Amino acid sequence: MAQLQAVLSCPSSNFVFHASKRSDSFRDKLCCLGKSSSFQELGVRSSGLHGSALVHHRGNLAQASTGRAIQAVLSSEKETDVSTSPKGGLRGRLNKVVLAYSGGLDTSVIVPWLRENYGCEVVCFTADVGQGIKELEGLEAKAKASGACQLVVKDLKEEFVRDYIFPCLRAGAIYERKYLLGTSMARPVIAKAMVDVAKEVGADAVSHGCTGKGNDQVRFELAFFALNPELNVVAPWREWDITGREDAIEYAKKHNVPVPVTKKSIYSRDRNLWHISHEGDILEDPSNEPKKDMYMMTVDPEDAPDQPEYIEIGIVSGLPVSVNGTELSPAALLSALNDIGGRHGIGRIDMVENRLVGMKSRGVYETPGGTILFTAARELESLTLDRETLQTKDTLAFKYAESVYAGRWFDPLREAMDAFMESITKTTTGSVTLKLYKGSVTVTGRKSPYSLYRQDISSFESGDIYNQADAAGFIRLYGLPMRVRAMLEKGI
């Protein structure tokens, strides 16, 4: 204890406590590190849990051991040693980790890797966001065979559409002119559910299988930070030595983890109720045309019905509520439109986008129902919003889309923009009639009880409200700056 007091007398130091293999003793040395020591110097990576790493929390300085803890106050920080707990892993000690789990090769391997490297229990979590029943079959058996203590599955389809998709739809959020944000909107609802599950099961960490090159790692982790900053985050792809599929298969065999027997797609895909994305293989060359058999939600427009189909979308306060007069829940409505749009080849997008991490990537997206809804919502606004409001909305829609794409769903700015969108679309109520034909969506009619369109004003026939002679004075005033400039140039 005298040694501890002596070390604590160094006010400018950070500490690493090396626990003894015996829980009631601290015979190992106490290291006093100067202010200049950084986490990089200590070998700390993104998870903050490597080797003799220190995990930072606000408050006190605590040493984690198997049965006892020593706390001391220093510079208003608490640092927990996770390096040498007798029940710890190679990289540290965690109690329980909630893993975003799909049942594929990567997440199947992550389960034993977490147990080996962090000495923790692993709770697998799967969110049903409409990826399809086949993706959910046999998951519990797979998870437990990989070493997980349990699998938690939550049906998030209604929440996903109601609280994430529909606000983006109301805002008119489209990233880089084309992308309807299918993956971007799904990540925060999944991350939120993971944080909730972590609280329910008493986990002290969360983990995901996102690579260090993609956008999803940012989206997940920003959500974790916003919803529970005390949770540790473990990102194996930024830590482990596995570099590809063959390495992962070898690791799985070594740890007796059954390798998923499903045929690996040549494409990297992400599917939910809003869309499906395709990346990789021949798509990595932007000059290559996608193969016809790649698409999964939509038929080739060339093979679509030779007769057009008309549908009517009912909208209340900027949000869709019905299809052809039938009111549906958010998820049921979107699912119905996916079927209708899919058989007409609606919603195919091929684009090169700028990822958040700096590189460009080429992706092909299918968003049949979403494309129909975006067309309908924007068209109804042409009746209900005045020019200045519509222009301001379009300006903010651009920023809104960027915020969602960049993983800032729970950012105050996005929430403030959403409040603006909700306010200005209170009168965006009515219906839009659309014609679907061989990949195209054409508006054929729109109506609203709050329409700002007045036939008695807009008609070419004479009316009492608008006097055409008034336009002469308006034009003279509106064009005054141009007249003054021309007078200057001509010396008048």
Automatic annotation (TrEMBL):
Keyword Transmembrane attached: no
Domain Arginosuccinate synthase C-terminal: from-to ranges: 267-484
Any single GO CC term annotated in Swiss-Prot or TrEMBL for this entry: cytoplasm
Record bears the keyword Membrane: no
Biochemical pathway: Amino-acid biosynthesis; L-arginine biosynthesis; L-arginine from L-ornithine and carbamoyl phosphate: step 2/3
GO biological process: argininosuccinate metabolic process; L-arginine biosynthetic process; urea cycle
Transmembrane segments: none
Assigned keywords, A-Z: Amino-acid biosynthesis, Arginine biosynthesis, ATP-binding, Ligase, Nucleotide-binding
Domain of life the protein comes from: Eukaryota
InterPro entries in UniProt: Arginosuc_syn_C, Arginosuc_syn_N, Arginosuc_synth, Arginosuc_synth_CS, Arginosuc_synth_type_1_subfam, AS_cat/multimer_dom_body, Rossmann-like_a/b/a_fold
One MF term in the entry's GO annotations: ATP binding
Occurrences of domain Arginosuccinate synthase-like N-terminal (ranges): 96-258
EC number: 6.3.4.5
Major enzyme class: ligase
Subunit and interaction comment: Homotetramer.
PANTHER family from the UniProt entry: ARGININOSUCCINATE SYNTHASE
NCBIfam families from the UniProt entry: argG, PRK00509.1
Protein name as it appears in the record: argininosuccinate synthase
Organism: Nelumbo nucifera (Sacred lotus)
GN (gene name): LOC104610467
